[in-house]
Amino acid sequence: MGYFLETLFGGLMSGMLYALVGLGFVLIFKASGVFNFAQGAMVLVAALSMARFATWLPQWFGFESMLLANVLAFIISAVLMTIVAILIERFVLRHLVNQEATTLLMATLGISYFLDGAGQTLFGSSVYSIDVGMPKDPAFIFESIFEGGVLINLEDLTAAAISAILVVILALFFQYTTTGRALRAVADDHQAAQSIGIPLNRIWIIVWAVAGVVALVAGIIWGSKFGVQFTLSTAALRALPVVILGGLTSVPGAIIGGLIIGVGEKLSEAYLGEYFGGGIEIWFAYVLALVFLLFRPQGLFGEKIIDRV
């Protein structure tokens, strides 16, 4: 039972990280109706900005406080992601209003490659570290119940808590704020939203900026665990099964989907890996996503689209 709980907790914590990355996809899709292939590049650029400015600022201004450096680096990186959102709206999205979804999809691919190149140009291509003070030591819980207790990673626990808080804030934002309702209206129909006075350009800037901040938090967590390198842009691919499972239009779906994928990966590797020669954790999520695409393509919480003729 102790081993099962360790695997379960590990899966839940990984699932919250997947959900955090998946949220970026959901946010953009809810506002524009397009799948944002640039989300991985946004995570990379945000993490690079955080890592480099946390190093540069003490050198430039001569202070030694890492806490101050991290706070300032976070603020600068959040502002940078907002600027990226403004530029994307001004030079790309503004010219693609009411275009086919395929056109917008290809635009996000172009944005992705541009951000990858810009990140390398501005911040370099080395592997960088992010140290925001997250605890690295493991801890034992339930020692009075199970012999030896249950081992958990405090860094994963902290990351899962941060992810959960951000997810709750975003869910409340979409459900109970005027801007959140406007975002949903824009996703349903661009022309109808404009006809009732919803400023499409401003809405797109807001949602891309929010997705950028989400990417920043995800980049900090992933960078703290594994370092910041250009393979980080592929981390978004790990979240694809999450949004397929939970539904592209559902914030709660991203949460549930992330938890299911995280737990499923860990448990399948722990208990079925030996029968499949290992490595089941790598492909489990994609097989599960394929099953959903075949039998429930809208996901667990996505809206079923019915075209009437």
UniProtKB/TrEMBL annotation:
Top-level taxon: Bacteria
InterPro entries named in the record: ABC_transp_permease (IPR001851), BCAA_transport_permease (IPR052157)
Bilayer-crossing regions: 12-29, 41-61, 67-88, 157-176, 203-223, 235-263, 275-295
One MF annotation (Gene Ontology) recorded for this entry: transmembrane transporter activity
Keyword Transport attached: yes
Protein's UniProt keywords contain Kinase: no
Membrane topology designation: Multi-pass membrane protein
Key words, A-Z: Amino-acid transport, Cell membrane, Membrane, Transmembrane, Transmembrane helix, Transport
Broad class of the protein's primary localization: membrane
GO CC terms, sorted: plasma membrane
Subcellular location: Cell membrane
One annotated GO biological process: amino acid transport
Family according to the record: Belongs to the binding-protein-dependent transport system permease family. LivHM subfamily.
Official protein name in the record: ABC transporter permease
Native source organism of the sequence: Pelistega indica
Lineage: Bacteria, Pseudomonadati, Pseudomonadota, Betaproteobacteria, Burkholderiales
